[in-house]
Amino acid sequence: MQALERILAILESTARTASAASPTKVAEETGLSLSTVVRLMQSLTDAHVLVRSADTGQYRIGPRLVGIVARATQSFDYRIAAQPLLDNLRDITQETASLHMLQGNDRMCVAAAYTTQPFGRIVPIGLPFPVAGSAAGHALLSQLDDGDLERVLNEVCEGSQVEIVRAAVQEVREQGFTVAVNQAVAGIRGIAMPVGKDPGLGCLSVSGPASRFDDAAAAKALPPLQETAEALVSMRALEPPAERPGRA
């Protein structure tokens, strides 16, 4: 592992820790030797990228890195950055492409590129819709850990719907996407895919009239949908959790 990769691995491990990270834990997570971790964490502390507690000897992300991220987020908007990718996905599939996020227990379209065909799916931007019972909603739920998933299911579903939605979410987790017809809107077929595993990145959907966007068209849309999702993952949302579209 190169020096820069080691530093990034240490920073990512430290940032994932809710309170503060010990060198031993970071070494276990990164696979680096303890001596290497101790040496690099001390260097990062000297540069104010990390902060070390004198009482516990554990580390937190320091003010210098927080400042860098804060300045970067001022000029980055995930939804704006995603728009050219949605436009390209729309042009390839000839159907509406949209990006969805979780907002509390609802799903919300935050960006879209509408089909230019005479009639097609118009996904309202900025309006909350039930997360259960749609391809996009099930793709979003697949990104949650099991505890959050069960909480949402118990809050938004009734009776047998809990098992139905749970099975649909499991299908997304196993095959990486889901296709639905006549679920959220009658006469509409949609294919949805989570953007990675981070709920903050949301999910992508391509949808259109079922008479035109049939099974063959949906299957043809899957590769560009996957490529777009991978492009969004590589882009990595820089927005801090408090400002990032997602769970409220």
TrEMBL record:
<dbReference type="InterPro" id="IPR036390">
    <property type="entry name" value="WH_DNA-bd_sf"/>
</dbReference>
<dbReference type="GO" id="GO:0003700">
    <property type="term" value="F:DNA-binding transcription factor activity"/>
</dbReference>
<dbReference type="InterPro" id="IPR036388">
    <property type="entry name" value="WH-like_DNA-bd_sf"/>
</dbReference>
<dbReference type="Pfam" id="PF01614">
    <property type="entry name" value="IclR_C"/>
</dbReference>
<dbReference type="InterPro" id="IPR050707">
    <property type="entry name" value="HTH_MetabolicPath_Reg"/>
</dbReference>
<dbReference type="Pfam" id="PF09339">
    <property type="entry name" value="HTH_IclR"/>
</dbReference>
<keyword id="KW-0805">Transcription regulation</keyword>
<dbReference type="InterPro" id="IPR005471">
    <property type="entry name" value="Tscrpt_reg_IclR_N"/>
</dbReference>
<dbReference type="InterPro" id="IPR014757">
    <property type="entry name" value="Tscrpt_reg_IclR_C"/>
</dbReference>
<dbReference type="InterPro" id="IPR029016">
    <property type="entry name" value="GAF-like_dom_sf"/>
</dbReference>
<dbReference type="GO" id="GO:0003677">
    <property type="term" value="F:DNA binding"/>
</dbReference>
<protein>
    <submittedName>
        <fullName>Helix-turn-helix domain-containing protein</fullName>
    </submittedName>
</protein>
<feature type="domain" description="IclR-ED">
    <location>
        <begin position="64"/>
        <end position="238"/>
    </location>
</feature>
<dbReference type="GO" id="GO:0045892">
    <property type="term" value="P:negative regulation of DNA-templated transcription"/>
</dbReference>
<feature type="domain" description="HTH iclR-type">
    <location>
        <begin position="1"/>
        <end position="63"/>
    </location>
</feature>
<keyword id="KW-0238">DNA-binding</keyword>
<keyword id="KW-0804">Transcription</keyword>
